[in-house]
Amino acid sequence: MKKTRVILLLVYLLPFSLMVLIVWRLFFFSYPEFTSYLAASLQKPEWDTFIQQRFTAAAFVAARWIITVLVVLYLAAGVLFFFKRKIIVEKTESAINFIFKKLREQGKEIFTMPRYARWLLFILLIFVTVKGLWYIIYFPLQYDELWTYNYYIGNTFWQSILLPHNNHILFTATAWFFHWLPVDPQISIRLPNLFAGLALTVIFFLFIKRYVSVRAALFSTFWLATCSPVVFYMLFARGYLFVLLFTVIALWTQLILIENRREKLYSAVLLMAIVLGYWSNPVFMYPHAAIGLT
Asked: Is-above-0.90 flag for pTM?
């Protein structure tokens, strides 16, 4: 329980520290100093005039009021959480135990499958990994990948998520951490999609197995792993594979909620999958609309 309290405290303090930083910048910087600071933070000093055109002095004053209200509300929520800390800690631990229980159940389902199914799934995962690594290393970088690296991933973390015209925010934020690996940038910026592809393969297999059969899961997962768009998205340093991953997660959790509306934790998983799906790419709107009709 003590570890859970520490984790919850850190989770609470992280957004609060960001709010304090914003308050400091808004209230202790003049408007010209603030816009210059934004331009310098984005390593685009020539954007000072552009930022002032988009973020006017009136908007700067409004932002001061908005952040003040948000800080007050956040502190009030912190006081409420303090008095309700016992219940919150218990519910958090219950949620964590539930997640690990479900993961163990899925692991047991895999190990209790027929031997041929386990071997075929294992071979398929090895195939996906080797194929993905080969393409990542030898397939030439595309224009969009180079542009994404030079403009977003290869700069500061804030640039990777805040610069305009970025439709793949979750991917560029994730790839920013990978690009610090001591490997060629061509490999590092593509690795997130390899791991996302492996997760997609396993989750898709378990999803089909749950609602159809083991054989159907093997055939459909083999089709997924060799489908041309999926193969390309597993090496293409953009956020499209993340969209596929969160689509499957959202669809599965939606079906579980249809079966049993009392599973509140799955509602949180569904909401998280939807949010991350849109952060991956706005094109998530199309599968989201279809899932919403189920």
From this structure: no
